[in-house]
């Protein structure tokens, strides 16, 4: 446990890709997707608790989710759960969180180290995750560096961003066996062709979307590359400290920030950016299809949750929402499909159309259906 | 309205083929499959009411369904709804019904005409159905004949029995434009090859499973070809008349009857069997797949009930149980499948596997699931 570390968990996701289990008011981070005992957000908090005092762990989520997150997460102080008044991408989210941290801890905050983690990714080995985090924080402190964590890709993946490193054979540090490299460049979600090239080379790693730095280093980076945000942070922290009830003013100031990702706004532009290579299993579990990867399969490669009846099926996934045991699901003679059922919704599609659940959600919005 | 006619509606079906909408306690005849306003059994009763006084319409169903049928059907006297103590096929069903009719109307019953109809078939034109019924009854009365109704096949169908007629160009009667023919033979459910041969010839018609005769003609047929049943009818009617509370005795006597169909036991053996050709639409709606035939299709040949969202689908059927409007169904990128949802069950299968829902029901029985 280190009093000099703060943790920020970005938990602002919407609830579209996991319909019919997820909802606007119950997005992915509040689901029991990767564990039957803990919501993904609970897992994220519990992963940080061995390293960071609970008073220094913050969750940034959408204002409309504030109450349900506070109800779900009771092992950190409720005032550390922050409701962003609008969606301003990851740079906005971090500006909002840092403004609160500055308001709370004052000038001393600038010397604190900060771990920015996600609320809705699967992380296989929490101990090894914390080792990577420690190595990244240590390097960021020693070198005034902005760190991210890269992950060994296990397949060509067109849904993730990649990081290209340079000094493969000369890591800059090797604390606890976690090597640290220079980042040559960040790569957007690639074509399948490019993803296959990346997969064949040890110079490419998945961008996990986590960040580690001393707060002063981050603020300097903001001043140089995102001056609007730097000013926004100052204004917001002043308002929060002196007049925390001024919700409208806070909201107006936050709304005025450009919507931009921290990768694009800071990490791709700064010259003190490095990557720590995590050797834990990581996946952003971005769709029903990707959830298949974590479920045990039977001899016909069928994966299931909630005891469906499957007759003559191959390579299908059936997800019958746990806890809703009044539904009986029967699937006969199907291949390569997903069937997902909740108390009030059913999704059926080929596995390779899992991304298109967004289209279905859009259509339901048009029809003003209640099950969103 | 003719006081000399009694109607018997055979409503003993089980609830397997239309899972998850049907159940053991809510079988096909109690579903709103072919009409959104009336259960199939209600439709069957209402089709008879213009021709038969309600006191002379009987429903024979399983004893376990007696209460729910009496609750659902309130336009005939509750004592006319009979609960068979066991399943003894259609010959047993008719023996049970006739025993009650004899007990109720005494010797006069033997001169009455009897219409035996099914509770779970689709009949398109009720007026034309009644014309066929009148023509069949009239012929049965004049000629001491056992009549059935044959229907123009609209496709080669391996799921139905067929009737082969002989005198195609010399109908024996043509009352109200309904021709009556000699039956050469009854044909069991054919192979596809044979069904195609039948389809090409005007000598073959679908066996609708309905029967028309004077009760004395039927009793004579039973005496000659099914003496056990003839004796059973006598014993049962005596018991019902003199000691209607003797449920155990009635049940024991009924149980002792051989389980046999009226087609096999009587119609295929008697020599006074004729067929009236109905020119109304008829279908036994035997499975989810066949229900597709009655639903309107969109331009991609998709049929749906209950407003599902269908994206990039072709030739699918989605049936979201009417009245259960809390379920939202989304189907994306599927072809030739069925998706059926009820409040507590979901079925997904290729259309040509619709018959196999029985396998799924068997598996659920094994698992002791409640949704049966």
How is this fold's topology laid out?
Two copies of one chain form a homodimer.
Chain A lengths: L4 E7 L28 H9 L8 E6 L3 H7 L8 E4 L4 H17 L7 E6 L3 E2 L2 H18 L2 E6 L10 E4 L14 E8 L4 H8 L4 E11 H11 L1 H16 L4 H9 L6 H6 L5 E6 L3 E2 L4 H4 L11 E3 L3 E3 L5 E4 L7 E5 L4 E5 L3 E6 L6 H10 L6
Parallel strand pairs in A: 1-2, 1-4, 2-3, 6-10, 12-14, 13-15, 14-16
Antiparallel strand pairs in A: 4-9, 5-11, 6-9, 7-8, 7-9, 8-10, 16-17
Helix pairs in contact in A: 3-7, 6-7, 7-8
What does this structure look like?
The structure is a homodimer of 372-residue chains. Chain A folds into 2 domains: 5-283, Spore Coat Polysaccharide Biosynthesis Protein SpsA, Chain A, CATH 3.90.550.10; 288-366, no CATH class. Helices cover 31% and strands 24% of the residues of chain A. With 372 residues, chain A is an alpha/beta fold. In chain A, the strands form 4 sheets. In chain A, strands 6-9-7-8-10 form a 5-stranded mixed beta barrel. Chain A is globular and about 65 Å long. In chain A, strand 2, helix 2 and strand 3 form a beta-alpha-beta unit. Chains A and B meet through strand 15, strand 16, strand 17 and helix 11 of A and strand 15, strand 16, strand 17 and helix 11 of B. Strand 15 (328-332) of chain A pairs parallel with strand 17 (345-350) of chain B.
């Amino acid at each position: 446990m280190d009093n000099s570390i703060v943790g920020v968990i970005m938990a602002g996701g919407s609830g579209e890709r996991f319909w019919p289990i997820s909802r606007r008011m119950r997005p992915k981070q509040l689901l029991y997707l990767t564990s039957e005992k803990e919501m993904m957000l609970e897992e994220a908090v519990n992963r940080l608790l061995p390293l960071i005092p609970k008073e220094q762990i913050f969750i940034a989520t959408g204002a409309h989710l504030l109450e349900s997150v506070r109800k779900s997460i009771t092992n950190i102080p409720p005032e550390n759960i922050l409701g962003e008044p609008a969606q301003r991408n990851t740079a906005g989210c971090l500006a909002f969180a840092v403004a609160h941290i500055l308001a709370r801890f004052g000038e001393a905050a600038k010397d604190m180290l900060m771990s920015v983690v996600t609320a809705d990714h699967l992380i296989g080995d929490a101990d090894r995750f914390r080792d990577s985090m420690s190595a990244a924080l240590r390097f960021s402190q020693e070198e005034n560096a902005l760190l991210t964590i890269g992950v060994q890709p296990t397949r060509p993946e067109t849904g993730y961003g990649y990081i290209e490193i340079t000094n493969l054979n000369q890591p800059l540090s090797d604390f606890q066996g976690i090597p640290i490299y220079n980042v040559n460049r960040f790569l957007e979600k690639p074509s399948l062709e490019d993803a296959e090239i990346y997969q064949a080379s040890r110079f490419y790693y998945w961008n996990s979307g986590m960040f580690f730095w001393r707060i002063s280093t981050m603020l300097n980076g903001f001043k140089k590359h995102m001056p609007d945000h730097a000013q926004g942070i100052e204004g917001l922290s002043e308002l929060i400290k002196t007049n925390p009830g001024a919700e409208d003013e806070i909201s107006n100031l936050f709304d005025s920030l450009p919507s931009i990702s921290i990768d694009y706004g800071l990490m791709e532009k700064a010259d003190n950016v490095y990557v720590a290579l995590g050797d834990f299993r990581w996946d952003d579990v971005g769709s029903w299809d990707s959830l298949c990867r974590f479920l045990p399969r039977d001899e016909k490669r069928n994966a299931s949750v909630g005891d469906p009846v499957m007759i003559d099926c191959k390579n299908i996934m059936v997800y019958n929402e746990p806890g809703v045991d009044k539904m009986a699901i029967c699937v006969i003679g199907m291949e390569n499909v997903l069937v997902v059922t909740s108390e009030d919704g059913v999704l059926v599609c080929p596995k390779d159309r899992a991304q298109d659940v967004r289209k279905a959600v859009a259509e339901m919005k048009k029809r003003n259906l209640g099950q969103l």
